Amino acid sequence: MTFEKLIAGIQPIDEKKRQAAMERCDQLVKPLGSLGKLESIACRLAGIYGEVCPEIKGKAVIVMAADNGVLEEGVASAPKEITAMQTLNMVKGVTGVMVLAKQNGAQVRIVDIGVDAELQGEGLIQEKIRRGTGNIAKEPAMSREEAMAAIMVGVRQVEALKDEGVNLFGTGEMGIGNTTTSSAIVHACFPELPIASITGKGAGLTEEAFLHKQDVIRRAVEVNQVDGADPLDILAKVGGLDIAGMVGTYLGAAYYGLPVVIDGVISAAAALLASRFAPNAREYMFASHCSMEPAYQAIMERIGLEPTLYLDMRLGEGSGCPIMFSVMEFACAMQKNMETFAETAMQDDFLVDIRES
Ligand SMILES: Cc1cc2ncn([C@H]3O[C@H](COP(=O)(O)O)[C@@H](O)[C@H]3O)c2cc1C
Ligand SMILES: O=C(O)c1cccnc1
């Protein structure tokens, strides 16, 4: 598959099916709108799957692990080795996303797309484009070709899982320093926003290092002369391999007409770029929880998505996705298993009375 074919193949969702689902939802034995976001989730899933009563058959979070060269600027409290260590912990099944996914019954695919170490582990997918990226404060993270290759890694993961029966995806990552690259992407896309308003402390930082992180984000976009209108330029110059792989997950899911869940701020930065590559891709995205990182809200407001859950989470890894999968399963159960007033064979005049009260 070529990149051009991928982008050209991303179609809008089936609006007629979404409308038909809304009609059924409005007929269910409940006051109109009373199941809130479960209703809008079920109806958008109906438009995606082309079924009035959508059904989730298989779920997977795809975790992209990579190192970020910008770490040498002192923008993160954790050392680089944590990326490799935590990737192996994922393989062992003991990290946050692994435990939450197991609880939901979702599988997790862990992809080494650019960790700066030779990793081995059962089930670890080896798709290393290069060992870590360049330091974006001084040079591009990677070449355009490398960014494109990393996107296609994500697309191929979706393709393989789809063939195994997965029809709901989640995006995850592991890469120390990637809240810096995420904020740099947001700065390149929305230069009008003050950098302080789109920068957070990531996994934890001192006040002094936090101010320095803002300066690094400013310099990264300046030094690389990023073209804010070209998503590939942004991704290659100030992004990362982890984020590029996630862009591929979004675009792949949208190409195959399947829903995909956004986790935290890094995942949201990838969603932002994916929607710049293909505006229709946004219709396949579901926001899970509201990350505590400030750039998250800035992205969501601008791409027009609303977080579903407020859990004060700021872990990343894809940890919000399995929680959202459960919410989406509840939404499908509502749509399929509740009965309509007509199905329960109530009298029409009585029905009008109670529904209008
Ligand atoms: C032990 C540990 C486990 C993590 N799991 C996810 N992250 C999260 O923190 C990193 C981003 O934050 P920053 O930009 O500040 O480095 C990413 O790896 C993200 O997944 C972790 C971070 C740490 C330290
Ligand atoms: O929102 C996130 O995903 C996040 C926040 C802080 C650190 N790592 C991830």
UniProtKB/TrEMBL annotation:
Record-level Gene Ontology MF annotations: nicotinate-nucleotide-dimethylbenzimidazole phosphoribosyltransferase activity
Keywords: Cobalamin biosynthesis, Glycosyltransferase, Transferase
Pfam family, any one: DBI_PRT
EC number per UniProt: 2.4.2.21
Reactions catalysed: 5,6-dimethylbenzimidazole + nicotinate beta-D-ribonucleotide = alpha-ribazole 5'-phosphate + nicotinate + H(+)
Claim: Transferase is one of the keywords in the record: yes
Active site: E317
GO biological process, one term: cobalamin biosynthetic process
Presence of the UniProt keyword rRNA-binding in the record: no
Pathway: Nucleoside biosynthesis; alpha-ribazole biosynthesis; alpha-ribazole from 5,6-dimethylbenzimidazole: step 1/2
Family: Belongs to the CobT family.
The protein's role, per its UniProt record: Catalyzes the synthesis of alpha-ribazole-5'-phosphate from nicotinate mononucleotide (NAMN) and 5,6-dimethylbenzimidazole (DMB).
Protein name (Swiss-Prot/TrEMBL): Nicotinate-nucleotide--dimethylbenzimidazole phosphoribosyltransferase
Gene source species: Bianquea renquensis
Gene: cobT
